Sequence to fold (535 residues):
Amino acid sequence: MEMEKLVSLCKRRGFMFQSSEIYGGINGFWDYGPLGVELKRNIKDAWWRDMVTGHDDLAQLPGAPAAYEMTGLDCTIIMHPQVWKCSGHYDLFHDYMVDCRESKKRYRHDQIQGRWVEAKGKKIFATAGSDSESPEADLERQALKFFGMRSKNADELKWDGPLVSLTTVDDFEQVLGPDAKSLGSLTPPREFNLMFKTTIGALGGDSDAAFLRPETAQGIFVNFKNVVDSSRVRVPFGIAQVGKSFRNEITPRNFTFRSREFEQMEIEFFCHPDSSQDWYTYWRQRRFQWYQDMGLDKGKLILREHHPEELAHYSIGTADIEYAFPFLPEGEYGELEGIAHRGDFDLRSHMEGKLDPNTNPMTVELNEEGKPKHRGSGKDLSYRDDLSGERFVPHVVEPSAGADRAMLAFLCEAFTEDEAPDDKGKMQTRTLMKLHPRIAPIKAAIFPLVKKDGMPEMAQDIYRTLKKEWNVFYDEKGAVGRRYRRQDEAGTPFCITVDGDSMQDQTVTIRHRDTLDQWRVKADDLSDELRKLIG
Ligand code: GAP
Fold:
């Protein structure tokens, strides 16, 4: 699938627009249009329903070590700044970036790639930025230009070694920046915190600084005690939250894949340390299956286990659910969701002060004066099991998903072109969005075949009845074939047509978006039929 076709359909049909587009847009921010808002809402609702409200607290689900409870929270975006100090985001949540003094552009250090190349007795490190589609070709062009050579002499360039990241190069004096003409224009890498800073109140001093949350998870940790004290949940249980997160990504890209404002759907699952490994295994499988149930092709999904050396020692494991997004090179996958075993790091950090993840067992990180570098809340966040009497700090398994990433994957998966006959029976290329009926923005479209003979009246009655339960759409304008095509592009799974026979026998046709099958049902049975079809 060509990504450009999907991007253009998303704009044309109102799934997504660039934020502030009339002012030229703002990089890394996206708006959801009339169809997009419904699709994204349906994804979040399906997640909430499947993980939280629809969860059977009494049953032991297949693969789960025990029955468990689920509940939810909705926390603020701006929280006490100490939250981010204890969570580690204040000290550790950064990327390294380099600036080009010549082009004034900024790049992520690890995303600049290049090769050593020699000509005319001089050796340089030629580079290409992360947006380069063919880095090798770009490097050759750049090197030829730098050495003042013509393309027919390209074989005089002596390349040394493969394409490597700029992180392998120490001496920046030999580096030719991706958009520079002279050597040594890149600054040394500098830390760049990804949290958006803001100010609370009118004075605006340093003590009023706050941050937009970079993840929803911390709101759950700091409310752990509130939830335990105010509800009757018992460990093991999970708290879910859906909401906006903000990261000042240096290189937002690939449509909404890496945005600066996005939504997360996170669960913090609290369990006894002895069973945390089993819960980790359960959640990996549970979440991996969810994407397939919602329509992603298993062949395009992988569950990638992090290497042991990537893990903090307190973590038994982290696995990413990844999808073969069409904008990635063949064989590469992009992260949809991470499932992390976080041990007791978060609850203990918020109690005692930020722990040093490099200590074993973990101890509070100290400053030069030997005091906690970041003070904790001092509140007791341990849990007492009222049946066994045992008191312990629960371990956490965290399935953390992105609503925008999930939506992008569903859109990529859904985009389809096939051949279908038009009104005159001639085969035409048809574009359709094969969205799962549960997440499709519009569940059914209702058409009178023609605007006369009582058909519009009957179709409007059907529309009003179905509208009580679903987002359905009424359309009487233009040829019926054109109306079908518009709904195919919007991802509407079913079209209901009122025709001449309907006036006689009170039946209507239902047309299936993907198979083009059509069948008749009694108008009175439509709600039951749709309920079965949507699932
Ligand atoms: N609490 C853990 C956490 O936030 P993460 O891997 O940084 O973990 C979880 O983020 C999920 O949030 C990712 O798998 C992705 O789906 C989504 N996400 C993260 N950064 C994003 C961005 N810049 N744009 C869109 N989605 C993002």
